Batch of 2 targets.
Target 1
Amino acid sequence: MSNKVVLAGGTGFIGQYFEQRFLEMGYDVVIISRRPGHISWQDQAGIVRALEGAQMVINLAGKSVNCRYNEKNKREIMNSRLETTRALGNAIQSCQSPPPLWFNSSTATIYRHAEDRPMTEKAGEIGSGFSVEVAKAWEQAFFEFHLPQTRQIALRIAIVLGPGGGVMTPYQYLVRFGLGGKQGSGKQRFSWIHVEDLLGIILFLRDRKELDGVFNCSAPNPVTNGELMKLLRQNMHRSIGMPAPRWMLEMGAVMIRTETELILKSRWVVPNRLVKEGFMFRFGRLERTLEDILK
């Protein structure tokens, strides 16, 4: 079998980490991206050639949701996910030797705001609102393709933590400048996954050829926002952190061109299927995750 892996949308924080690790494992890595120097999303023939004979394709593409939800941004957020997913599906259908495995990103935000109980793949309740509509449409576009030679897995990914990027940068700024207290009520759940465990999940599912469908990609021990901020202060040796009530967050979100949903929505998501199948998390608790990232 080919040792080629295709990273679609592979130039962001997660994609760069995956590229480095796959190269270390001896893979040939091909990247599809809007950035120069890679296969363009407009080059459908090039995408087919990239996928031909590949061991797997991992789709990470999509405009960042860290922006204001005006009509232009909402349209770009939606289209960037649907168009890239459909481009990959159409390309796989055109392959003589299609990849046997296609991972497509989804999001743990698909579930409702939950402070009462955790959301599993089987018993989780789908939420409402723009972000949820994006997630539903994204998964629908993915599973619309029926590919007899390609196993399809949708990864409902929680907030990804890792060194050198992602959401850790703004959180560190908040703590450093004395704003590391609870945000809103502080009771909203924070579900996360270490980027190394996300890669581990992909390698685990790669080898479990009987598994497909939807998987929650989140550490098994979510915390509250208050606990998150306390652990951040401890790891960054800051004893004081000013809390931020909702009205302050709303004002700040307008100023920095983002949405408070990213902080205030309670994401209580657990990886029920992965745990039942025997996946072992290296970073199952936030304490160890932050120690690793901030060391």
Note: The first helix runs from residue 13 to 24.
Target 2
Amino acid sequence: MSYTALYRKFRPGEFEDVKGQDHISKTLQNQIKADRIGHAYLFCGTRGTGKTSVAKIFAKAVNCEHPVNGSPCGVCDSCKAISSGTSMNVIEIDAASNNGVDNIREIREEVAYRPTEGKYKVYIIDEVHMLSIGAFNALLKTLEEPPEYVIFILATTEAHKIPITILSRCQRYDFKRITIDTIAARLTDLMQKENIEVEEKAIRYVAKAADGSMRDALSLLDQCIAFYLGQKLTYDNVLEVLGAVDTEVFSRLLRELLERNVAKVMKSLDELVMQGRELSQLAADFTWYLRNLLLAKSSDNMEDVLDVSTENLAQLKEEAQMIENDTLIRYIRIFSELSNQLKYATQKRVMMEVAFIKLCRPEMEVEQDTLLERIRALEEQIQQGIAVRPQAAAYAEQTVEEAPGPKVELTKALHEDVKAVAKDFRPIVNQLSGMLRNCLKMARLSVGNQDQLLIVLPDEVSAGVVGTPEHREEIEHLIEQRIGKTVAIEVRCVEEGRRFEDSFVDIEKVVHMDITVED
């Protein structure tokens, strides 16, 4: 006898076998037990969640000679005929290939005849959203007032494409995506029946890759078993067959991205390509990995949502502390866009390489969520010594080293001294380091209640850069060198929707100083 695929071999035969759709199974069983059977049903949901299986079980149950608790007995002649596909009472129609008006007219003619055996004639129309407008219109009257012995079950993955006139005539049941735990438990049970040894970790990866579809999970597992026929199916075997990547590789990639080391990232990607990893799967899995990092960073109580082992959860939490929230969200955005692009790309590797380079080089992007990352990259360059230190500060340090002794305590600046600083502020700005100097070009000066020098920036981003302890110390140090007195500095920004003049007094205008803004 020819081999039967797992998803066909283990298709549910009664309501108890349907996993993850208890809310639907219970409702249909109660209808059958109470003899409150409707005339039209609409089953909606993603692929592989049990729509057609439940429709067939329901068709068996309403025609069963000896139903058990609203479920078919499976042993009577009617149940056997429906299971084998030889029953004249259950008519399955694929609307994708029978979507014309003539096909629906045939149904309208057939429903006039009573079933030769059993109570009901059940019409199961799969992918009903594929019917033409004319076919839907032809179905309307029959669907609204069918004979008492006819039941229509419409199944679809895209309920939004069905006319409202059809929807209003049906009882609607939404099939949910099946959870990873439910799929994994079902796969484990079936592997025991098949006497096939499979690692639990491998089972869970297949369950996750199925994305809520039991049929997809069985098909993927069937594929993996066939490749390693007669051997124990391990986690690494599953990764190899499905072209997937282990989380350890993602962990290494993340560290290389945070280092902004393009060469290392390209080398890691080249290794994955040479191993035969599927790039679309890589993009999807890396996006999922980044999502887990974001969840781990957002809350300490994410064990149930993350669905990872204790060891992986500890590693996720450790890695989550290495990366900022805005950076993570930017990574997820870029890889979500990449996943869509890879569906139609002929040069998938090139698209993947461009995405990784974008992650390493935030200056290549102009999106708003990249601004903080670009500023962070510039700060790292300054810390690495790329920017030249201010000459005045260097000269001051040299003088202290040459003439050691107790440092003279500088007197606190008076209000008039703050005004004096304003006169020389632009020359002071020109001596500052590159990024700080650029941010201060658009700064304006005012005085606080405690005689502080207020440096007012036009936006929060530039105020955040200037207001760091290191940058404030650099500005204060140069002011000390300039006037010989300490001046308390406070950094503020103009509130959104307001002007500088609405909240502050411009010292530079008070001292009649022309403001020079460098290009």
Note: The chain is about 55% helix and 10% strand.
